[in-house]
Amino acid sequence: MPYMGLEEVERLLSTLRQQMTQKNRLLPGGYLYMTDLLGKPDYINAIGRLIASVFINEKLDAVMTMETKGIPLAYAVASQRSIPVVIVRRSSKVTEGSTVSINYISGSSKRIQTMVLPRRSLKENARVLIVDDFMKAGGTMKGMTSMIQEFGAEVAGMAVLVETKEEQPKLVDRYVSLLKLTIPDRQETPIIENGNVYDWLPKQHVNPTKVETKDQA
């Protein structure tokens, strides 16, 4: 797997911050429009390499995500490790056979929602990396964690492209975020800063306590 060096990490995050800090990207409900970026092979492949680099020392058997916007990111990460992608859906499909269904509470809306996964998707004791494009309170991430446990598998890690900066703690911890979104009071231009990814990069890659990005210098 091509390992992403520190300079390349800084260039990628800087480019993503510039692209996402646009007034017309803010959506109602505190969400961020990223569909165009997730559809660009150069961007999504680079993001996948970065996330794979964070977990380069972890044994991984699969990458899991929730339909639908997290799918390109999941495949980008999985391709770096040549492992399968497991897609959790909101409803079952006849073509997928018998499924496991669980209810979870959405962290942002506080509503009970359902997610399903075919029984053939995961083997017992499999080590699974959860990835998603966007996280507010972390309800979906927590739901996928519960789903993995239902299969007798293990959560090897969690990674998200963008997390929101919330006053309340997330429903999950020990996750990697590449970027962090702060919505100003007037909800005009989003404020994008680096997430906690530098804290998670392997020690031989970089000493996170001494990292200073170009924007922070």
UniProtKB/TrEMBL annotation:
<protein>
    <submittedName>
        <fullName>PurR: transcription regulator associated with purine metabolism</fullName>
    </submittedName>
</protein>
<feature type="domain" description="Phosphoribosyltransferase">
    <location>
        <begin position="41"/>
        <end position="180"/>
    </location>
</feature>
<dbReference type="InterPro" id="IPR000836">
    <property type="entry name" value="PRTase_dom"/>
</dbReference>
<dbReference type="Pfam" id="PF00156">
    <property type="entry name" value="Pribosyltran"/>
</dbReference>
<dbReference type="InterPro" id="IPR029057">
    <property type="entry name" value="PRTase-like"/>
</dbReference>
<dbReference type="InterPro" id="IPR050118">
    <property type="entry name" value="Pur/Pyrimidine_PRTase"/>
</dbReference>
